[in-house]
Amino acid sequence: MKKSKKTNKTVKSTYDVLVDDPEQKKLLEQEYQELLLSELLLATMKRDQLSVRKLAAEAGVSPTIIQELRVGKRTNITLATFNRVLDAIGYQIAIEPKGR
């Protein structure tokens, strides 16, 4: 946050205003997590020159699931499916305590 030189008041960014609202903060965090998976898939598929069908076959899931994850359309998958997709692109799930 920045202080305005003229009024010496704190000026909030749009992000700061949104995260002040608990519902908006939760939605923003959910959308960010969905974006991360989508971006991870896009980058990995490009790097490894994987098609949707090839990745789906390697992960043992339908091409529809991969395509929907890729474009951010599918937001609710099982942990088993998520783990298979991550394994196919060379990643794993790590669980650690939240920072306090």
Number of helices: 5
The CATH first-level class comes to: Mainly Alpha
> If strands are numbered along the chain, what order do they take across the biggest sheet?
1-2
The CATH topology name reads 434 Repressor (Amino-terminal Domain)
Helix-and-strand structural type: mainly alpha
Mean pLDDT metric: 83
Number of strands: 2
Please give the alpha-carbon distance between the first and last residues: 22 Å
CATH H-tier superfamily? lambda repressor-like DNA-binding domains
Q: What is the CATH architecture annotation?
A: Orthogonal Bundle
Please estimate the helix content. Answer: 55-70%
* Major sheet: 2 strands, antiparallel
The gist of it:
It is built from five helices and two strands.
Describe what you observe in this structure.
Helices cover 59% and strands 4% of the residues. With 100 residues, it is mainly alpha-helical. The chain has a single domain (9-88), classed as lambda repressor-like DNA-binding domains (434 Repressor (Amino-terminal Domain)), CATH 1.10.260. The model has no long low-confidence stretch (mean pLDDT 83).
Task: Supply database-style keywords.
100 residues, 5 helices, 59% helix, 4% strand
Topology readout:
Blueprint: E1 2-3, E2 10-11, H1 14-20, H2 22-47, H3 52-59, H4 63-70, H5 79-88
Antiparallel strand pairs: 1-2
